Fold this sequence. Notes:
Blueprint: H1 4-8, H2 11-26, H3 34-50, H4 55-67, H5 79-94, H6 98-109, H7 121-131, H8 148-155, E1 156-164, E2 169-176, H9 183-203, E3 207-212, E4 215-216
Parallel strand pairs: 2-3
Antiparallel strand pairs: 1-2, 3-4
Amino acid sequence: MITFKEIKENKEINTYIESADKYLADIGYTEHSFKHVLRCAAVVEEILASLGYDERIIELGKIAAYMHDIGNVVNRAGHARSGALMAFHILEKLGMNTSEIALIVSAIGNHDESSAYPVSIISSALIIADKTDVRRSRVRKEILEFDIHNRVNYAAIKSRVVVDKDNKTLNLNLIIDTSICSIMEYFEIFLSRMKLCEKAASFFGLEFKLVINDQELI
């Protein structure tokens, strides 16, 4: 079986991640480097482990998270679909089981909010991990235009995803510096992502909660 460790050490995949992040830097997007994909993998693992899913499902979820943005090397537009196709060819070449490839490519193909839908356990966990990665370190120092997207990320001092099985909720807990970005600006940028997280959480039978500066907003 192909492992997350093998994927993480694969030179071809890592080249695509590096190249995709450079392309996104060139067009002014926030960081989508190894920090982002590794954080997504860690959140996917935390969600699925908290809910009691087996080790192989968790491993496949981490692989999907690590590879989910490689399509950006082609173009930002449609990157979920192109990334799914790239992942299919890479994983097939590595000899992964067809049923496992299907789970991974459907998760990758359904992670972008413009076309996403939580179609499986893995895709639901990936959506939540990807859409909740809001943090100051995603803002690139080399980007001169400090627009609303950068302000929202830069204002996020702390973010954490927490599964509360007792209350059947999945919480995104944020601490935001409101002198940099208002809570209204956060919603202006991320409302569609939060609505997608609601759908993904409901796949697990959980209610999505957004808590900003200790105030429950969703």
